[in-house]
Amino acid sequence: MEETISLKELFAILRKRLWLILALTVAATITAGLVSFYLLTPIYQSSTQLLVNQAKSDKQIDFNAVQTNLDLINTYNVIIKSPAILEKVQQEMNLDRSVSELNNQITVNSKENSQVVEVTVEDKDPVMAVNMANTIADVFQKEIATIMSVDNVSILSKAQMAENPSPVKPQPLLNMAIALVVGLMAGVGLAFLLEYLDNTIKTEQDIEKVLELPVLGSIAEMKIDASSQRKTSREARTAEKGGSVHV
């Protein structure tokens, strides 16, 4: 027979395992906070912008040149992160990290139909992030003329060092909020799992559900007060000694 469970029974299960749900939720939130604040290394971010646009002597706009520049941007995005550029950045800044590591720190973005390319660098040192972003822009501007035989890249804005730089990651509050939700979901899931695996019979309703038979009667729990229990114990000890008890 197919088993169904009512909304009231669902709330009863949650109330029964409430301590477990709360414990998992609190533990997950505290753990995420401790890891975010004390274990993860803060990462800072800095960006510089490049403009892909051929310099013109007159003020008229050549739409064919603009379209050509837009088509070249995707190629430029790849060249910026290529060893041809990053090796020179590595040498110029005397970095002790590999080209592959530099590549992982750099993100190149360009908005659709925009001639602006944004180079973003992430590093655990905010000063290093600024210097690396500006160096990449300078090296790319110089080298692209040799690589592509064009001179259509200029630096639109350089990376600047903020007075009080703040890390972009980790984000402790966000991590704690995610951990709270995950811990709550895990607690609820574990509560239902434990209830599903628990096949012990505790009430008359459990008997009816498992055996599919009506309960004809039940023995109520008998409670004996302390004075009666002491009297019964005294009578039992006296009986063992072969004596008699007078009331």
UniProtKB/TrEMBL annotation:
It comes from the Bacteria. It is found in: Cell membrane. Signal peptide: none annotated. InterPro entries: Bact_polysacc_biosynth/exp (IPR050445), GNVR (IPR032807), LPS_length_determ_N (IPR003856). It is a multi-pass membrane protein. Keywords: Cell membrane, Membrane, Transmembrane, Transmembrane helix. Belongs to the CpsC/CapA family. This is YveK family protein. It comes from Fictibacillus iocasae.
